[in-house]
Write a structure and sequence with these properties.
Blueprint (H helix, E strand, L loop, with lengths): L1 E8 L2 E7 L4 E6 L10 E3 L3 H14 L17 H11 L7 E2 H11 L7 H9 L12 E2 L12 H10 L9
Helix pairs in contact: 3-4
Length: 167
């Protein structure tokens, strides 16, 4: 059985989905998520923890994604990229190219394309908590965000990232 809860934030409505023990999805209004038609509206303990996590994040308390029990389903490549996203410190950014270099090393390949990384980043099912908004283009440009660049800018500004050199 899947459960869902919703919370309001200055970014809009945030929907969270879990099973009995693991957070499975988080998305902001305007982003794609699974249909909640077959989910039960119920605040489970893990959803309560995730809502608390987000409230602390929005209060600049810098919670760690590893505090939550998250169940990710994806290819080994996607899982690796999503784990790497969790290693990007609050208020800092990395590039698709840097992630591609780490992935190439991890999977014993000569090189990996930044576009492949972008595809995995774009399929991140746990928005904000797994901070895909902290990935930028190698030239410093803000590129790609499932919720739109305005949302990415708001999240980076919230974390104190200087956008003068990025935008």
């Amino acid at each position: 059985m899947l459960y869902y809860a919703e919370m309001n934030s200055y970014l809009g409505k945030i929907t969270l989905v879990s099973d009995e023990t693991h957070l499975k999805e988080v998305w902001i209004e305007g982003q794609k998520g699974i249909s909640i038609d077959n989910c039960k509206l119920e605040i489970t303990p893990i959803l309560t923890q995730a809502i608390d996590w987000l409230e602390r994040y929005f209060s600049n308390q810098r919670p760690n994604s590893k505090e939550l029990s998250i169940l990710l389903e994806g290819s080994p490549f996607q899982l690796f990229i999503w784990e790497e996203l969790c290693n990007i410190p609050y208020g800092e950014v990395t590039t698709y190219k840097a992630l591609a270099e780490k992935a190439a090393s991890r999977f014993h390949k000569k090189r990996m394309s930044a576009q492949a990384v972008g595809g995995a980043v774009g399929k991140n099912p746990i928005s904000i908590i797994i901070p895909c908004h902290r990935v930028i283009g190698s030239n410093g440009a803000l590129v790609g965000y499932q919720g739109g660049l305005n949302l990415k800018i708001q999240l980076l500004k919230h974390e104190g990232v200087s956008l003068g050199e990025i935008v």
